[in-house]
Amino acid sequence: MILSVRKVIIPVLAIFNLLSVSCSQSGGKVSSDTDSLADQNSRTAVSTVVKAKDMNFTANELGKVMVLEYHLIGYPEDRWRRTPENFRKDLQMLYDNDFYPVSVLDIARGNLNVPAGKTPFAITLDDSSAGQFRYLEKNGQLVIDPNCALGIMEDFRKKYKDFPITASFYVLPAIKPKLRLFAQPEYQKQKLEWLVKNGYEIGSHNWYHSMLSKLSDAEVQKHLSMFVKEIKAFIPDYEVKTMALPLGMHAKNRVLESKGEFEGTRYNHQAVLLVGSVSSVSPFSKDFNPLAIQRVQAGEHTENPETFMKSQIKHKTRFVSDGDPKSISAPEKLKDQLKPGLDKKFNIKWVKEEEKSTES
Ligand SMILES: [Zn+2]
User: Fold this and answer.
1) For labelling, which of 115, 164, 296, 300 has a CA lying 20 to 30 Å from the CA of 256?
2) Are 144 and 124 in contact (CB under 8 A)?
3) Distance, CA 288 to ligand 1 centroid (Å)?
4) How far is the CA of 209 from the centre of ligand 1 (A)?
5) How many whole angstroms separate alpha carbon 332 and alpha carbon 212?
6) Which domains can be identified in the chain, with CATH numbers?
7) Is pLDDT above 60 for 175?
8) Per-residue confidence at 42, pLDDT binned at 50, 70, 90?
């Protein structure tokens, strides 16, 4: 019974998801829409138990989520550099294994409009080098280098319509020229505008990559506010919403990582990213903290996205969407992992694993 209903619902949700993504690309309205849906839903919140055999996959929305972390894109492959071929290979691997791109903010807010059976993940790129976004002149026209990270992602977006790629760029506005806003000074404003217009995020990596641990409280606020001021000089209406900690170093006073002010310029970060080396817990987990989100560093080392992916598939620990943004479905055995209070906002569906003896 449930299976036949799902068959009808899933294609509709898939279309809804595609629409949602294009909305978020043009105006970022999705979060408030889903919030209001969830709020309406709170009036009828229920907790139900469904059987795993009634789904054609086992939803686990308390499973792990990868926020991928990239630095340089170019040659040769190195600890902090991914080649264009390997970046492409990573995206293909994620596509082929039922991952689905979402934004860092969607993860931070727990607004996951992800098709049924898919695993959300986010892409982040730190330090704004030219290999991430490079313009080339071709026959008198300015084109995005097809071998920079953005060119590769845009190709992927065109090739796979069911994979609405997006990413957060943690840029540096006042550092040495080769890391300053993608290292082509004549195109700084044009690039920032292009990214925002096309649904990518500009995040703070602070004024010039300062280690916040070494700064006074006043200096932390200065370096984070100056980032906002510099970005607004190029794109005045843009609100900086997330921040990646340079080298993963926390400020002495961690409250100042998310909120502060310097000479009339304020910042308000809804997500703070670590330089992690593990997957994030689900945003619905009681252990999730949007102001300390773990990341997985891409590369050829042992703790890379492929390693985590294989382990999570093998042990069934990755986030698998139920396709319904109004509900949270997860194996019943993870009941104690749910963040308190979410049952007021979402329908909670506990998935009962089949007893071995009942299977024929
Ligand atoms: Zn950095």
Assistant:
1) 296
2) no
3) 23
4) 6
5) 41
6) 60-322 (3.20.20.370)
7) yes
8) very low
